[in-house]
């Protein structure tokens, strides 16, 4: 039974167009031939996917279309209407076979097809419609002798093909080419005819040639990716189909139909670069690194004594550089740092950029000694200043190291443990490297536990405020207090802020915590004022995340309204690094805060990169000198000069100066001589609970009363 008969027998319907057998529907949609079903009135009601490519569409728009167009097999003369397949069936013919030239649509290439037509009847002989089966015989026509196809038709197929068509003899000598060859290669046909196929392809792919010719001599059609060099020396990628020419069952030569896929190839390479490489540094990205690490682990699983190291690298002070000098400076720092680290690694491993200022290194065939040597080398390289736009970019790095198989045997473990070790370096002062230890993992567990407990502490009022006095240098009187939060954990007692403040910063709880501190400090001070105690300045630290929070202004405004504290008694302390990021935005935000009537102080002054020009623009009231300068001003002469310069600078800008970290009388005397207005430190008092702070204010009130 022919395929046409089979399909005809599987179609049975009350109304044509329904396939009632699942196997028939599957066959209908997955056949290599085009299948078209018509109603008895000639209306197209069904076509499979292959038929649609030839222009047979069962859509409303297709009803008024002139396509597909039929031509005689020579491709030049339109087929008369009465000779067209459907019309012949409509005129009463039961079975037809025609070889035609068919054009499916405007701008689409035509094909030589064999159309088999059949009238369809029910089992009782009732006419149901008509069916056309379309076979593409274009390639087979190419294989036939020239006498079987007119010279004009053959030339049309050959010359007007948009792809390159090359005709070779059995020895691989080029006999003829079409005009597309010049568009792709820049060479004319006369320059190429007579050359061998081996001369046309690139030397790097010549090894495939012998294998290709062997298959051709076996009479097999081959699909091959290859490349050639055009006349201007550019590489051109081709998708080639090699077709044997069979004449009277004998191999007479072969055609190569080659499509230029250079654009697609380049697009795929671009997509690959985006998927696997970092656009800024050119390093492999996270996805690429994980694939490399997974492959390395798979290799190690078959080799018992194999070892390697993972190094997690994070740049120190990158955010400060990025914020003070701009993103271009930050990007330049990342690019140069990546180059330096890649040079350190050489061919001994892989480095990837994870995100931001984080990099990760896979050091293959290496143990602890090799990893330690590399880490030290990287630290030395990164510490060398990088010059950008007349600025010396000074950076260091924190590096955590994990070893396979000592610390883990999975990619997740090795990366996590290297990350944990890196954070331990950060905690211990940065600019160093550490190997992972089990103790670090226990520390992470404790940290996670503390995170949960801190959330509970905020809900259950386990937090309390301590107050450190700020005194007038000239009189010794209390001029204010700095409010400092403490955590009184039921299981452990008072927790150092150095332990939980960074955690609150990381988790985002600092926003809620900061609001709590502001509210409690303002409420407490207002109660002291209502008791008749001396109004003094209450200073509250504002963290980076708080300052960046868009709701900060409204939060402070509501707290001042609710507590009724005079705004000029509240001093907001921001760090110098906050004051330097995004200059215009910071100035605008500070100006808006000043409209509330509050005071603003720059904390830890001297540790950043403030310029006089920039400082003049900031709407601030106080400079708070970092305690590191105060600590060394007795024994280190330059620090005295620095402190003196800061005080003179502040006074020239009509700002108050507060020195923190005052611990001995000699520091007090020197700062008083330098006209520093306020002092803070252990010489006067450690941070104390609210009741003790109240007692100091009460004693000062009584002293003034009886003086």
UniProtKB/TrEMBL annotation:
GGDEF domain residues: 306-438
Which SUPFAM superfamilies did the record assign? EAL domain-like (SSF141868), Nucleotide cyclase (SSF55073), PYP-like sensor domain (PAS domain) (SSF55785)
- What range(s) does the PAS domain occupy? 150-220
Span of domain EAL: 447-701
Q: Superkingdom of the source?
A: Bacteria
Q: Which SMART domains match?
A: EAL (SM00052), GGDEF (SM00267), PAS (SM00091)
The name of this protein is PAS domain S-box-containing protein/diguanylate cyclase (GGDEF) domain-containing protein
Which NCBIfam families does this UniProt record tie to the protein?
GGDEF (TIGR00254), sensory_box (TIGR00229)
| PAC domain sequence ranges | 222-273
InterPro entries attached here? Biofilm_reg_signaling, EAL_dom, EAL_sf, GGDEF_dom, Nucleotide_cyclase, PAS, PAS-assoc_C, PAS-like_dom_sf
């Amino acid at each position: 039974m022919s395929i046409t008969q089979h399909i005809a027998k599987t179609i049975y319907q009350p109304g044509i167009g329904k396939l009632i057998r699942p196997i028939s529907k599957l066959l209908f949609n997955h056949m290599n031939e085009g299948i078209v079903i018509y109603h008895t009135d000639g209306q197209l009601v069904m076509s499979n996917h292959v038929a649609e490519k030839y222009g047979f569409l069962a859509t409303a728009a297709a009803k008024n279309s002139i396509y597909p167009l039929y031509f005689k097999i020579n491709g030049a003369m339109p087929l008369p209407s009465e000779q067209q397949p459907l019309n012949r069936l409509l005129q009463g013919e039961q079975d037809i076979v025609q070889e035609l030239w068919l054009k499916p649509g405007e701008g689409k290439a035509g094909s030589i097809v064999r159309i088999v037509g059949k009238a369809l009847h029910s089992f009782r002989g009732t006419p149901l419609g008509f069916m056309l089966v379309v076979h593409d015989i274009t390639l087979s026509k190419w294989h036939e002798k020239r006498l079987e196809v007119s010279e004009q038709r053959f030339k049309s197929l050959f010359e007007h093909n948009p792809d390159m068509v090359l005709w070779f003899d059995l020895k691989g000598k080029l006999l003829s080419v079409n005009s597309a060859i010049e568009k792709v290669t820049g060479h004319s046909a006369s320059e190429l005819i007579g050359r061998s196929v081996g001369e046309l392809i690139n030397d790097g792919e010549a090894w495939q040639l012998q294998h290709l010719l062997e298959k051709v001599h076996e009479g097999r059609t081959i699909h091959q990716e290859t490349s050639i060099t055009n006349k201007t020396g550019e590489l051109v990628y081709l998708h080639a189909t090699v077709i044997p020419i069979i004449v009277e069952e004998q191999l007479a030569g072969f055609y190569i139909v080659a499509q230029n896929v250079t654009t697609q190839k380049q697009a795929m390479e671009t997509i690959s670069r985006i998927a696997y490489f970092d656009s800024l540094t050119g390093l492999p990205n996270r996805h690429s690194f994980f694939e490399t690490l997974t492959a390395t682990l798979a290799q190690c699983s078959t080799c018992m004594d194999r070892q390697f190291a993972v190094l997690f690298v994070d740049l120190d002070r990158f955010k400060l550089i990025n914020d003070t000098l701009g993103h271009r400076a930050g990007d330049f720092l990342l690019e140069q740092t990546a180059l330096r680290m890649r040079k350190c690694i050489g061919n001994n491993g892989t480095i990837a950029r994870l995100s931001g200022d984080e990099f990760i290194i896979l050091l293959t065939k290496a143990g602890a000694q090799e990893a330690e040597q590399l880490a030290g080398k990287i630290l030395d390289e990164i510490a060398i200043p990088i010059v950008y736009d007349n600025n010396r970019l000074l950076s260091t790095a924190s590096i955590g190291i994990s070893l396979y198989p000592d610390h883990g045997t999975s990619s997740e473990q090795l990366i996590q443990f290297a990350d944990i070790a890196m954070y331990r370096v950060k905690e211990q002062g940065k600019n160093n490297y550490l190997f992972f230890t089990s103790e670090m993992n226990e520390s992470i567990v404790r940290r996670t536990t503390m995170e949960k407990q801190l959330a509970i502490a905020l809900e259950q009022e386990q937090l309390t405020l301590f107050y450190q006095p700020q005194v007038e240098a000239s009189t010794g009187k209390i001029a204010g207090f700095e409010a400092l939060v403490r955590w009184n954990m039921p299981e452990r007692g008072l927790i150092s802020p150095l332990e939980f403040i960074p955690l609150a910063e990381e988790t985002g709880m600092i926003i809620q915590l900061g609001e709590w501190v502001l509210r409690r400090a303002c409420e407490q001070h207002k109660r002291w004022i209502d008791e008749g105690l001396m109004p003094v300045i209450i200073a509250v630290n504002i963290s980076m995340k708080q300052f960046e929070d868009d709701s900060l202004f409204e939060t402070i405004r509501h707290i001042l309204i609710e507590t009724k504290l005079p705004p000029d008694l509240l001093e907001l302390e921001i760090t110098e690094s906050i004051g330097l990021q995004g200059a215009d935005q910071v100035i605008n935000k500070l100006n808006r805060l000043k409209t509330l009537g509050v005071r603003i102080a720059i904390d830890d002054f001297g540790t950043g990169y403030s310029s006089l020009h920039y400082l003049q623009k900031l709407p601030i009231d106080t400079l708070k000198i970092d305690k590191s300068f105060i600590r060394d001003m007795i024994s280190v002469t330059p620090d005295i000069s620095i402190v003196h310069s800061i005080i003179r600078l502040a006074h020239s800008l009509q700002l108050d100066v507060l020195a923190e970290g005052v611990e001995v009388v000699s520091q007090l005397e020197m700062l008083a001589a330098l006209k520093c207005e306020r002092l803070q430190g252990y010489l006067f008092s450690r941070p104390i609970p609210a009741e003790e702070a109240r007692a100091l204010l009460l004693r000062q009130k009584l002293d003034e009363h009886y003086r």
